[in-house]
Amino acid sequence: MQIIQPHYHAIARTAQDYERMAMSGVVAVAEPAFWAGFDREYPETFIDYFKQISEFEPTRAADYGIRHFCWVAVNPKEAENPALSHEVLKKMPEFFTKPTVLGVGEIGFHKTTKNEEEIFEAQVELAIKHNQLILIHTPHLQDKVRGTTRTLEVLRHMNFDPERVWIDHVEEHTIRGPLEEGYWVGFTLYPITKCTPKRAVDMLEIYGRERIIINSSADWGPSDPFTLQECIMDYRARGNSLQDAIEVFHNNPCRFLGQNPKFDIKPIRVEQEGVEQPVGSAT
Amino acid sequence: MLTADKVLDRYYLDIRCMLVEIAATLDRHDRALDDSSATDGRDARLDKVYDALAMLAQTGGTPDRSERLLNMFSDLD
Asked: Each residue of A36-87: pLDDT tens digit?
C-alpha cells in the first residue's frame, strides 16, 4: 500500500528510516521546521536549517525513491524570542519559491505566552500574504487544551480559508473545535505523550476521515515513524478496506498538501480489491 | 533503587499514557455496544477489568498491586 508520512523530521533520523519506510510503502514525507532540542541564537542558523530541509533532504530521500517536501517557520518554542523570530521571518519568503517548500509550519503555541502569540500571528499573516499553506502545532500534555483554545481564538480574527490550515497533534479532548471550525486536523502517533495508533483509529471511527491527517512526527526524541504502519494495521483489522486505508493514509495528505501545486502526488484508487482475510483472522 | 519522587519523575507520563489507553479501550467497547443489540454487555472479562481498576483506585495499599492484579486474572480454583 502506498503511504504518505505527512509530518516527519528527517534531519533527526538516519537513512535506515528512509530505507525501511520505502520498503513499507512510503512514497513521500513532509518535514515541518521544528525545535532542534536547543534554542538557536542566530537567524543564520535557521536559514541554514531551511536550506538543509529544502535542498539537501530531498536528495537524501530520493536515494530511496521517496519524495521529500518541507515547511519553513520559527517553531513555537523559539518564538519566545521575538527579536530573533522577526529576523528569521524576513528571510522566509525566499524559501517559499523553492520547489519543495509547501508553506509555513509548524507554528503556534508551546506555553501560550504573549511572545509566542505575537510570532504566531506574524507567521499566519506572512503565510496569507504569500498564499502559503499553514501547519499549526498544538502544545503537549497539560498545555494542550489551553493552547488549542487560544489558537482557535487567534485564528478567528484572521482572514483565510480554514481548509488551507492543518492543526496538528489533536487528541480526544481537542479535536472537536478545530474540525467544527473547518480546519484540517492531524493525529500524531507518538509514544507516551501524544496519540497511540489504536486511539487514532478510534477517532477515525467517531469523526470519520474527512479533513484528517495521520502522522508519526518522528524526530530526535523517543518516536517511531512505523507507528503509522501500526495504525494502518489496526485500521484494517477493524474491517476497513484497502481503499479506505488509502483514503486516510495516502489520499488525505494529497488532498491537503496538494492545495499547494508543488505537491503533485495525486489521490489513487485501487482498480479491484481482492478477497482478503481481515488482518488477525488467520486462526 | 529510585526515590519515590524520582519514580514519578520517570514514570508519571507512562502511567498517564496507560490510563488513557485503558479509557480508550473501554470507550471502544462501549461504543460497540451502542452499535449492537446482540449482547447485554455483561461479559465476565469486563467484570474482572472493573474489579482490577477498583483495586488500583485504592490509595495507601501495599506495594503488591501487580501480584494481586495478576491473581485476579488467574484461574486459581
From this structure: 999 999 999 999 999 999 999 999 999 999 999 999 999 999 999 999 999 9
Q: What DSSP line would sit under A26-67, residue for residue?
A: EEEEEE-----SS----HHHHHHHHHIIIIIHHHHHHTTT-E
SS3 state at A225: coil
The complex scores an ipTM of 0.88
> In this structure, which amino acid lies at residue A225?
P
Are B17 and A193 inside 8 Å of each other by CB? Answer: yes
Contacts of B28 in chain A (CB under 8 A): 198, 202
Domains of chain A: 3-257 (3.20.20.140)
**Residues B24, A199: C-beta atoms closer than 8 Å:** yes
Could you give the C-alpha distances from B62 to A145, A203, A210, B58, B67, in angstroms and in order? 35, 37, 48, 10, 11
| Residues A191-249: tens digit of each pLDDT | 888 899 999 999 999 999 999 999 998 999 999 999 999 999 999 999 999 999 999 99
